[in-house]
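Continuing from yesterday's entry. The apo prediction looked reasonable, so today I'm repeating it with manganese (II) ion included to see how the binding region is handled. Same sequence as before; SMILES copied from the compound registry.
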Amino acid sequence: MSTYAIGDLQGCYLTLRALLHKIKFDANSDRLWFVGDLVNRGAGSLECLRFVKNLGDRAAVVLGNHDLHLLAIAEGVAKTKALDTLDEILNAPDRDVLLQWLRAQKLLHVDGKFAMVHAGLLPQWSWPQSIALADEVTQVLRGKHYRHFLQSMYGNNPDEWRDDLEGGERLRVILNAMTRMRAITADGRMNLKFKGGLAEMPQDLQPWFVMPHARSGEAAVLAGHWSALGLHITPQFIGLDSGCVWGRELTALRLDDRAIFQVSSQEASSGGNEG
Ligand SMILES: [Mn+2]
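Holo prediction written out below.
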């Protein structure tokens, strides 16, 4: 029995099947973690969503920005963007069951030596605080006012954490850090525009995960969301988005021994730009 953490699917169902074949996935005993962005940009978003949902408690999932975007479109509080490939889900006979399941997923998953979040954690947060703040958003998403939350989640401000933030601003900062952040300034402000690789990063920015901190206790943080970073492994941080939807690889990390498995994209070329 093994547990594997898998990078951003973004609808790359054919590549997911190839990766599961490569790791000899045993549906009866193995477990799969997904770093979020199950859907969008790729051609197999509906199949990805159905597959992961059907794993039941053999899967652990955290929400990504594309997953939340899907929920907002489905509720009529956001519009489909030019590159979105979400119509197949929105028109599916089982859409309500799928979307209800998706909305109930967490922002942060913690289990033993690993914690998983789609984008990142702010350096101002203690580890217990990160767990509590992720849960604040989860409870709102699972609660009766979720539609209002999905409507108010868009936007880049405030760009930094304060303990006295309340309401929509408080939830937006938590959500932006956990589902969109890549780079941060030395004084802890999120820069939500930069999407490039480390070599292109402006001098006044740094990756969120190099900030000095003790924020994840004994756990190493697993994240996705940053395809230009690619597979990135340090003792305390592992970035798993290796750009499958952009024609590169889909990655699985076996948590038991940190073995890495990769397959090349099996998708028809999307021809789009990374973003
Ligand atoms: Mn993302």
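Comparison notes:
- Helices lie at 13-22, 45-54, 65-74, 87-90, 95-103, 127-142, 146-152, 167-179.
- The chain has one domain: 3-264.
Will overlay with the apo model tomorrow.
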